[in-house]
């Protein structure tokens, strides 16, 4: 696994190995990651990555958030509860030497989320497939007021989803068995 574009392009990230079977660790394929960032930067919505404050939920290896940093995001917060995943994220932050711009919180993204001063512009949501955790986590962060008024969410799942209350779908694409949903926070949320 490597960074696809931006200033860290080509940097090889930590070896996932066997991953974490219980956490269903399955990094987003390079091809899918490249497609996501092409949509975010060149998809007709303006560059949604440049200077974004990024929240990477169910972060896994951290590849999506780190790719965003490489392409001009200002900072990223990783939320992950798997021990193996947290170790990989820390290792990847060290590889890129981005400790100043990246923070990791080990917790369950679906549990009670405390209010936060920082508002996130770009949210990556890659929950374990088929467990209905994505909507639950997204709504928890929305309710706790973590999202900026014009927040964009990139939700990766194994099936097509309907936008949860408070969001509307801008784009939806299928890559093999992976569905990518790009959603915006509704103005009345």
TrEMBL record:
Any one Gene Ontology BP term: rRNA methylation
UniProt entry keywords in alphabetical sequence: Methyltransferase, Transferase
Transmembrane intervals: none
One Pfam match: Cons_hypoth95
InterPro entries assigned to the protein according to its UniProt record, in alphabetical order: DNA_methylase_N6_adenine_CS, RNA_MeTrfase_RsmD, SAM-dependent_MTases_sf
UniProt xrefs under Gene3D superfamilies: Vaccinia Virus protein VP39
PROSITE patterns, per the entry: N6_MTASE
CDD domains: AdoMet_MTases
GO molecular function: methyltransferase activity; nucleic acid binding
PANTHER family referenced in this protein's UniProt entry, alphabetically: METHYLTRANSFERASE
Protein name: N6-adenine-specific methylase
Source species: uncultured alpha proteobacterium EB080_L43F08
């Amino acid at each position: 696994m490597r960074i696809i574009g931006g200033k860290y392009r080509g940097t090889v990230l930590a070896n996932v190995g066997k991953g974490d079977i219980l956490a269903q660790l399955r990094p987003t394929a390079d091809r899918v990651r490249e497609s996501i960032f092409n949509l975010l930067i060149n998809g007709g919505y303006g560059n949604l990555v440049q200077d974004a404050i990024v929240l990477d939920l169910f972060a896994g290896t951290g590849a999506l958030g780190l790719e965003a940093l490489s392409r001009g995001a200002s900072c990223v917060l990783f939320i992950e509860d798997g021990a193996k995943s947290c170790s990989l994220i820390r290792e990847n932050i060290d590889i890129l030497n981005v400790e100043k711009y990246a923070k990791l919180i080990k917790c369950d993204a679906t549990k009670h989320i405390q209010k936060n001063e920082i508002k996130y512009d770009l949210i990556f949501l890659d929950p374990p497939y088929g467990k209905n955790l994505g909507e639950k986590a997204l709504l928890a962060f929305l309710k706790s007021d973590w999202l900026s008024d014009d927040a964009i969410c990139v939700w990766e799942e194994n099936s097509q989803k309907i936008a949860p209350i408070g969001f509307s779908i801008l784009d939806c694409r299928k890559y093999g068995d992976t569905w990518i949903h790009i959603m915006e926070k509704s103005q009345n949320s």
